Structure formats: C-alpha cells, structure tokens
Amino acid sequence: MQRSVVLSSGWDIMDFVRQLQKLAGGNVAFATIPVLDGAGWSDDGMQSVVRVDPRQVQDWVVGLLHEQDQGKTDELAYTPAKTTANVVNDTDINGLAAAVSKVLSSKGFTTGSVGNNDGDHVPGSQVRAAKADDLGAQQVAKELGGLPVVADASIAPGSVRVVLANDYSGPGSGLGGSDPNGVVSPARAFNLGSADDTTPPPSPILTAGSDAPECIN
C-alpha cells in the first residue's frame, strides 16, 4: 500500500480496527463456500472454474453471519468428523445398525462400534451423549430424522451412542424408498438427481487456533 487505499462506501474503518484488537487464533475461522463442481470448466472450455449455485451461496453466507452474530463460535467450528458415532440395534431387524452406521459415515461422522444393544431396552430410538446439548449428538439426531437426544454420563465426550428401536424409520431403515443399506431405489433415482441433497456439502470450517497445519483455499 504505497499509493492509496480504496474503502467500501459506508465502511467504518475505526470500528474494524477495534474488532481486530479482539482477534486471537481460536477466534479466526476459515470457511469454504458450497460448490456444485470444484473441477468445472467455463462455457468456452478454456478456463478451469469452480461452479456454484449463487442462491445457495447467498443462503449459506446469511446463515454463517447469523451464527457469528449469535456468538455460536463452537457451531461454526464444528465438523462431523469430531464425533464418533456408535450404533446399536435394539430390534430384530438384521443389519439395521450397520446400515445406519454407513449412513452416518457418508455424512462425515467418524465410524465407531456397531452391534446389538446389550443394555436395557429403550422405548424409542434415541441418540445418547454425555450432554443433551452436545453438538455432535444434535447433528447425528438431525441426520437420522430428528431423534431425541438423551443425556448419558457414561458416554465419553466426543462420542454418541445411537440406539435403534422398532420405531426407527429414518435413513438406512429400508423404509420410505430406500433399502437397509441406504441405497436409493430406482423409482426415486430420477427425482433425487436434481435434489439439493446431491450437492456436495461445504468444506469444514477451520479455525486458526488448530494445532495441526491446514491448507486454506
């Protein structure tokens, strides 16, 4: 900056400087916008480009800024890989726990143990975690169709235990057009081709306070 600095109209530079004074490594986060194709080409076929859905990017940015304004720094930095999902089957349906575990793995959660429930029978499907407000448990519950989260002090932090009962009808259950392995039936394949669920999820948000080196694109 040897000649001039151009500022956006209405930008309060002094307020920006005051914000900078509060910055620390763990308070700086890097987020990558959601993309449709990270290895696309321009219409003339001459340039390598990243293809995006402008409306999707706009909605994503609005949500990101809202969470920032709400002080939800933990939510911003959370990624599914930080949660180990253990899944147990409390039904007579063979392979249910394995199918649901596969669904969670495809969503980015770390795969934990899979098997039958050797504890007390549960009245309904649930996600158990050390705390009911555990971010990982809340996210797992959401991915499985909105299961209730139950606090269980015996669950280690960073892990959840998904208990599948006879009422489970979420992803991997074989109901609603998918088989127990989470494979979509041919009848629904065409409609899903244009659904938002087929869009790759945005890259995880990284914080500058991480001990591990990260590549920021």
From TrEMBL:
Pfam families: LytR_C. It comes from the Bacteria. Residues 173-217 are annotated as: Disordered. Residues 84-168 form the LytR/CpsA/Psr regulator C-terminal domain. InterPro entries: LytR/CpsA/Psr_C, LytR/CpsA/Psr_CW_biosynth. This is Conserved protein of uncharacterized function, (CpsA-related protein). It comes from Mycobacterium tuberculosis.
